[in-house]
């Protein structure tokens, strides 16, 4: 009877596991297979080897999109981690309005990325918004995307780092006060080194979000002006639905999966070793 009771929770989760494996692993394998075929509007059984990948990296638009994604990723992750840490330190001061502040800072993350993108599109409208025409300036469109998405995502980083700050031994805080250590020095020299797991978690979430960047670009710029804000996810969607090139789009999707796996696998192995 005890053995059956132990198996009952696993049996209850079995349908969910089967659906998850079928929906995720199955589609990944199907996409991988399709990337080696000559599929256009419909799937094909004609295998062409790595031809689609060769075409992908011979495509100037794809290479430009990778450059934009790298620049955006560095700026976005750095800005979110910095602003999220500063907000976490602010909320950690035991303010009376702590609950309100946490709600205000987290609220943008609860918004749809499309809705947030449209809000910032209006904000950057020279006639209706704050008077900046960054969305039509090829040199400023990426910083504009960084600004909009940092505003939306930094609240999540704040929540993660705040949880880490609240997990620090209170005796360390008391000792720092007794020694006359300034608050800024405590957070930089004592608290920050202990936030490694929290920072790693925030970095992983932000990095996977960078790879998937699509909605804010479509809502704010549509990839323009010209190709100034073109990103890989938009390249894939355009070739999948707009240019009826299923094989090339699948090759692009597989290439986007590579950095995600490169981020997730070391993180999963590290957690497994600690467990």
Topology:
Blueprint: H1 2-34, H2 51-57, H3 60-91, H4 98-110, H5 113-123, H6 141-166, H7 170-178, H8 183-191, H9 196-211, H10 215-220, H11 232-242, H12 246-274
Care to describe what's here?
- This protein has 275 residues and is mainly alpha-helical.
- It is globular, with a radius of gyration of 23 Å.
- Helix 2 (51-57) crosses helix 12.
- The chain has helices spanning 2-34, 51-57, 60-91, 98-110, 113-123, 141-166, 170-178, 183-191, 196-211, 215-220, 232-242, 246-274.
- It is 73% helix and 0% strand.
- 28% of the residues are buried.
- The model has no long low-confidence stretch (mean pLDDT 89).
- The two termini are 29 Å apart.
- The protein folds into two domains: 78-229, MetI-like fold, CATH 1.10.3720.10; 231-275, no CATH class.
- It has twelve helices and no strands.
H/E order of the elements? HHHHHHHHHHHH
Fraction of residues in helix:
over 70%
Q: Estimate the mean pLDDT confidence.
A: 89
Strand percentage lies at under 5%
Supply the number of structural domains.
Answer: 2
The helix count comes to 12
Biggest β-sheet, characterized? none
Look at the structure and name the CATH superfamily of the largest domain.
MetI-like
Rounded Rg: 23 Å
CATH class of the largest domain: Mainly Alpha
CATH fold naming of the largest domain: MetI-like fold
- Spatial separation of the terminal alpha carbons: 29 Å
CATH architecture of the largest domain: Orthogonal Bundle
Structural class: mainly alpha
Q: What is the number of E strands? A: 0
């Amino acid at each position: 009877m005890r053995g059956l009771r132990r198996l009952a929770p696993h049996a209850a989760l079995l349908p969910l596991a089967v659906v998850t494996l079928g929906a995720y692993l199955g589609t990944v394998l199907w996409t991988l297979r399709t990337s080696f075929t000559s599929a256009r509007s419909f799937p094909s059984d004609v295998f062409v080897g790595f031809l689609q990948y060769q075409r992908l990296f011979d495509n100037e638009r794809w290479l430009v999109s990778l450059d934009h994604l790298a620049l955006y990723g560095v700026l976005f992750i750095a800005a979110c981690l910095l602003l999220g840490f500063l907000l976490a330190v602010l909320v950690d001061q035991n303010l009376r309005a702590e609950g309100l502040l946490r709600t205000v800072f987290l609220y943008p993350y609860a918004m749809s990325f499309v809705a947030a993108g449209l809000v910032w599109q209006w904000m950057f409208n020279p006639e209706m918004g704050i008077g900046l025409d960054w969305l039509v300036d090829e040199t400023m469109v990426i910083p504009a995307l960084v600004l909009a998405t940092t505003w939306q995502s930094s609240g999540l980083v704040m929540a993660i780092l705040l949880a880490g700050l609240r997990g620090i031994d209170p005796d360390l805080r008391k000792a720092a006060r007794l020694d006359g250590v300034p608050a800024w020095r405590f957070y930089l020299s004592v608290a920050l080194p202990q936030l490694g797991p929290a920072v790693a978690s925030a970095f992983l979430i932000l990095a996977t979000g960078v790879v998937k960047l699509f909605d804010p670009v479509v809502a704010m710029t549509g990839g323009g002006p010209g190709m100034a804000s073109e990103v890989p996810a938009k390249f894939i969607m355009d070739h999948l639905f707009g240019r009826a090139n299923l094989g090339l789009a699948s090759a692009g999707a597989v290439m986007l999966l590579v950095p995600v796996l490169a981020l997730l696998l070391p993180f999963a192995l590290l957690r497994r070793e600690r467990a």
